# Entry
Amino acid sequence: MPIALEVVDAWFDGEKNLTCSMKWRVQRFETRTPRSIFECLVALSSGIVPNGLKFRVSCRPQYPNSFSFQLECNHPVNKSNLPIYRLELEPLRAHKNQPDAPGELSGLSIDRYVTHEHHFRDNVAPDRQMLNESSDKHARIVEDPPTNFDGAIAFLSVKLNIRNLTDIPRPRDQGVLL
Amino acid sequence: MTDQAQTTTLDARIKQAISNLLSAEQNGEGSLLNMPIPYPSGALVVLEIVPNAGSYFVSDVGFGFQEAEAYGAQGFYSHSAKQAAQKFGVSFDGYSIFSQWVGDSGLESALVYVANASKNAAERAIERAIEEKSSQKTDELFDRVEKIFGPKMVRRKLEIPGR
# Structure
């Protein structure tokens, strides 16, 4: 069964909590400096984690101002995830909206380092009230954006209504190869 | 506006578009280059180019992996990235897709093939994640239907004669 948008709305707007210990994980690779990941399941106020609802942050120590924050859930049928909301804080990658994006988002070009957000509501045609695989294709620029990790966490704790989001520590500058 | 003025304006706009799409930036010991190739999310491929003892190291900085991860397809990425690396003549280290010891005359080719391998690997991993459980669900449905109607009444595949 696909997930109805009104259900996702309830998850998005409702009060939530991270359910894990606040620890970053470091991935190391042969030819590159490592990257840091934070992943945690997110519970509704009832204590239920619906459809594997998860909050994820990733960053690279060599690019300390660029972060990707994502709220996502499991696809109800296959093994992919459905991004519900993603904040790209000063990203290294530029973004181009497709021409079929709605209204002012159509064809929007977002340069590298311009903080932007992918909201599931910007990615669903009015006649299709279900969350689908293309739930994050279109993005919009964040007005008055946060400019660092702490600012982004404060911004997201309000936007996503996750009560203990501010408990996530800053990633340490660990793992930069000398 | 005269035809010549229109042509000049169009020419200037196209040059600006190309410049916007292919912008490069010095970053530490190397450069980051935007490529006009979109991943499934609409983010553009970005490559890091680092001079390396008279040659270049060109890498996707692991963004293909990150793209797959955004859709829960990281478990499929290694397989698809190995295939893409082989197909496009580049390398994969478990995270980044790259080409190393690129000579001066081979830089443009390396940029094109590393970028396309990265996009291809991410796309394929995401496709496989989408296909995977779907086929599992199909198997489950077949098993249920077979239980209800019995094995003599149900076929997984059936050839239908005729045009």
About this structure: The interface with chain A takes residues 20, 23, 25, 28, 32, 34, 38, 40-46, 57, 59, 61-63, 66, 69-73, 75-76, 93-96, 98, 100, 126, 129-134, 137 of chain B (CB under 8 Å).
